Amino acid sequence: MSTGRASSKGCIDIARPSVPILIRTRKGMAAARRALPGPVVLVPTMGALHDGHRSPLRVAREYAGPDGSVLASIFVNPLQFGPTEDFDRYPRPIEHDLAVCAEERVTAVFQPDAAQMYPTPPTVTVNPGPAGRLLEGRSRPGFFDGVLTVVLKLFHLTEPDAAVFGAKDAQQLALIRHMVADLDLAVQIIEAPLHRDPDGLAASSRNAYLSAAERASALALSRALTAARLAAGWGAEAALAAAGAVLDEAAVASPPVGLDYLVLADPDTFGDVGTNHRGPALMLLAANVGTTRLIDNARLQIGAATDIQDGTTAANARSGETTGGLA
Description:
By secondary structure, the protein is of the alpha/beta class. The protein folds into 2 domains: 5-192, 3-Layer(aba) Sandwich (Rossmann fold); 205-318, Pantoate-beta-alanine ligase, C-terminal domain (Pantoate--beta-alanine Ligase, Chain: A,domain 2), CATH 3.30.1300.10. 34% of the residues lie in helices and 19% in strands. It has 11 helices and 11 strands. It has helices at residues 26-35, 51-64, 94-103, 114-117, 136-139, 143-158, 170-182, 212-218, 220-231, 236-251, 314-318, and strands spanning 5-6, 12-13, 21-23, 40-45, 69-74, 108-110, 162-166, 188-192, 257-265, 279-289, 292-302. Helix 6 packs across helix 7 (170-182) and helix 9 packs antiparallel against helix 10 (236-251). The longest helix is centred in the middle third of the chain and has 16 residues, at 143-158.
């Protein structure tokens, strides 16, 4: 694999590599960062790249422009995995990931190991605050502490001008924005649209764990969000009831969908919006299908008549007739 070409000054010229420069160490990252033409846009990932990752990579390239740099990081962060979670079996197909990065015109890939990211076991981590103790934070204690800690370290090690995060992990994105604001970090946070596969399932590296039957059951998540969107014009209770009806059916399917949470939340605090809420809200859900945990979300406009489409009802979504239109 090409690692760039030497300039007359002995530095690595990585302005226009034919393939991404692969960087594995802190010192290598520091040296490469000095040579990267700006703006430098970071896309943090855990690897196992799929079509859902192409969205933030393309957003990053658009922001960086033809002369700037897109820097992707690949690191499976042990701090955000619980003792019974899938850290050991999480896929790590580095050759595939580098090929995807090359296709998306990534300038450099930072792939440190745990010893590079955590030279000593961390004794200080980032507290995600009250919003980080809800939903995913409640179901996966310590998860957001680990996420924010590794993101902060990546910001320090790569010194990006901007960083791109996907909308599928809505709670994570909001907490990163809070961290950047609260800690006065000079990094612009950019949101990349949530990507769905053609069947409606939100793209995720963990989708690879699903059997064909499990994937068919998992489609209930996107159907539930569609049903909620179609019912949102009648209010918060109607949206929750419509989504709940889809998930109740999925709970007795074969294989079943085991719901962890379904909430209609404030997009900033992630607290419940309440039954009398009107205006923007975020519906979030998490469920297990087989041994795989999946999350999804959609922005809704509660109490807006425009959310009710003529001739289309929440019942259509429950039956699978309507799967598109999710934000």
